[in-house]
Amino acid sequence: MNNQIGTIQTLEVLRKIDTGYVLEDDILLHNNETDTELEAEQSVKVFIYQDKKGQTVATTQLPAIQIDRYGWAEVVEVLPHLGAFVNIGTTKEILVSKDDLPLFENVWPMIGDKLYVSLGKDRKGRLLALPATEIVFERELFEPAPDDLLNANISGRIYDTDREGSACITEEGYRGFIHHTERKEEPRLGELVKGRVIDVKEDGSINISLRPLKKYSMGEDADMILARLEESNGVIPFSDKSDPEDIRDTFKISKAAFKRALGKLMKERKVEQRDGKTYLVSKQ
């Protein structure tokens, strides 16, 4: 019986009871899990799962997501000690274990994000939602991007994220990679992001930037540096000679972007550099 959990089965109705129906293998179909009146010996197609008490039950709400069948599921609840619960299209919300989520909770999905998952079981036979791996995305969703996609605006959902970068699948099915230098903050798993294509690779995958074009980002970065100076009494221990990693850790931008913004501010005579530091001119 337990091997049916997480699958769709066609079962015979054995008898009607006050709370619903008893199906083959003593599986209970509650009244609130079907909108059709059933009769004994009638066959009915149902999805099999376990309720909170561990009892094997059924629903006539048939999800696309099953054992070894993938689909997008919306996150409906996040509990730090457990993981994220997703809606697979039935009244039963399924857990994505914290063991299958990123190490750092700040990039865990939030309510409303979507994960591409299938169903599996833990050691006790309970249903879990399992996020798809890179191999699954390549096999099931990957579409080679056309060469003329360069510089196009594009949207994608994050399916893998780490310090080096974030992987996403676009709405068209293109696999994209966002290098850590092309994002100000690390996106969440399952988050929908919008960016632009900066490279189309030979294998049909794409590189994406979440940063605005340089002509727009320079002013934005300059404003951020000014705000940091004002918060720091008019001086910051950074200059155009500072270590790139120190700049990225502090400002979430590349050294090249930092130098462009700093150059803009110096040209406008708003800041100056001395002894490896940057000062607000108005503070001198």
From TrEMBL:
Protein origin, superkingdom: Bacteria
InterPro entries: CvfB_fam (IPR014464), CvfB_S1_2nd (IPR048588), CvfB_S1_3rd (IPR048587), CvfB_S1_st (IPR039566), CvfB_WH (IPR040764), NA-bd_OB-fold (IPR012340), S1_domain (IPR003029), WH-like_DNA-bd_sf (IPR036388)
S1 motif domain ranges (all copies): 151-211
Pfam families given in the database record: CvfB_1st, CvfB_2nd, S1_2, WHD_CvfB
Single annotated GO MF: nucleic acid binding
Family: Belongs to the CvfB family.
Stated name of the protein: S1 RNA binding domain
Protein's organism: Gracilibacillus boraciitolerans JCM 21714
